[in-house]
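Changelog note: in this version the structure field was regenerated for every chain. One regenerated record is shown below for reference.
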Amino acid sequence: MPTTILKDESGATAIEYGLIAALISLACIMAFQALGLDLVDIFTTISNALTGES
């Protein structure tokens, strides 16, 4: 039985996808800061566009 537990890699894929998503998120945040973009202003603009406000 212990050998089947050691060979089971079903959880490894989910962890890898989580790590990839975290790295992409971190890269996006760093890029926004490097470009001088403020995320609050971006989301406010999107929200205003969706609600029809100016």
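Spot check on this record: Residues 48 and 54 are 6 Å apart (CA to CA). The chain is about 85% helix and 0% strand.
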